[in-house]
Amino acid sequence: MWDWITAELKSIENEFKNVLAQMPAGMAKKEGGLSADVFLFHFCKLPPGNLDARLGHALFGTIRGSRQEQYVTLGDIIVAKASCLRMGEDAAREFCFKILCRVSFLIAGGTNQEPTLTIERSPLEQALRACLKLALGAEASSSSDCVEAIAEGALSINGLKRSSMDLDCYSRWSKCWPAFHDLLSALIKGAGWSQDSLEMKGDPGTAHVRTQPEVSSQGMAGIQMEQCKQNDINKLLPSLLDLGRLKPEDFLLQPVWSWLVASCLPPDMRREWRCLFSTQRDGKSFNTMMGRLGRCEGPTLLLVKDKEGGHVMGGFASAPWVKNGSYFGDYSTFIFGLYPVTLMYKATGINSNFQWCGMGFSQLPNGCGFGGAQGSNNMGQFALYVDSTLDTGMSRPIATFGNDPLASNQIFQVSVVECWQLKPNEEDLEEPLPGKSGNKKKGSILDRAQDRHILGLAGVKVNNSDGLRPEEPIEE
């Protein structure tokens, strides 16, 4: 551990000296400090095209502190990185909250003086937009309604309606939705790491960034966005695959929502998400939906939109969906509302009624959902549920997640249902043999010599497998 910290400090010092030495006259201070542009784009290696100027200056000002000089020193940077990355979660949240406060302060027309540590609703929304621009690039331009929903949820954390955000509110909110906190941490995380240092084996959380070319006398004007690699900023944005005939904008799972939800999941669930089912693409067929979910061995995401209020909600299913006469799943299951208020509800531990999947029952509910009420008299009461017609949904307050209703009404008409696979099946990860197609098919026992021999001993003719070999399933 100490060897790693020593190497990190040495790398920061070396990179600081290298950047300082490369600066043309007038771009670096005599006092041995870095100006804002030099620090942001050469030392932190942030992308100029996506970085809102106010967010960049907020980071710079937070590191500089209360000093009035327009530069940061090596000591400033080391203290900032230690606060954000090495002194525990509380220190990291306080540091990132100060960045967010300063962004809001600059947006509201503040000067270089120290901002107050509270954020009002309107500046908060604009600060969140600046963060989304950095995280999503051009895709952030269509997220105006989403930002309002996120801000509303941030100020309604734990059921308490607030007019402004303080550090306690930020801490609670960032524990539910870590995406914005992770992005603010990433602003400083890769600062000071040269390419040689990044090739060392060590801290797996260190951002992989590349060194910048020498700066010309024209300053930052000649630096293109593709020359500046983002630190860990885009690591939470999974690729959305198997969209079929629909366009990306047709889905409930818009980039801002996938970025937000992915921040709550382990790294191996943040890479590629495949659309297994969408009522807009596949029609309202519960059998089709469950057939595709049944072939998925890992965790999934279920999204639902109600027809009347336009509410968008969903749940993370940790266990595969299989017909079951009892509840299943585990404590990593959670449900959430996305629009018009972005809220997260994790398992409370009161009961283990996490997931339900019913098909062909005469007495039990037929459909799939999350969070069932306790007791036989309450069977059929769910935190989030879609019945087998895919026409009717339910969202009631349930102790499993301690949630408020997620839809406009507790019983609502369903507009859209989507199911997303978050990890490929194990067999899909297996590499095909050299020269073979990548489309793996499970072979019949008639393809294996030992099995054919056993069938022969049993009196079954195996010279011709016609009539014995099962038909290949027809793709839907």
Describe this structure in a few short sentences.
This protein has 476 residues and is an alpha+beta fold. It has 15 helices and 13 strands. The protein is elongated and about 80 Å long.
Account of the protein in words:
The chain has helices at 2-22, 36-43, 53-64, 74-85, 89-107, 121-136, 144-154, 167-176, 179-189, 195-198, 255-262, 279-282, 286-294, 426-429, 449-457; strands at residues 119-120, 164-165, 239-241, 272-278, 300-306, 312-317, 334-339, 343-346, 355-358, 367-372, 382-387, 392-394, 411-421. It is an alpha+beta fold and 476 residues long. It has 3 domains: 2-227, Recoverin, domain 1 (Orthogonal Bundle); 267-421, no CATH class; 443-476, no CATH class. Strands 3, 4, 5, 6, 7, 8, 9, 10, 11, 12 and 13 form an 11-stranded mixed sheet that branches. The longest helix has 21 residues, at 2-22. It is elongated, with a radius of gyration of 27 Å. The chain starts with a helix and ends in a 19-residue tail after the last helix. Mean pLDDT is 79; it is low at 194-231, 436-455 and 462-476.
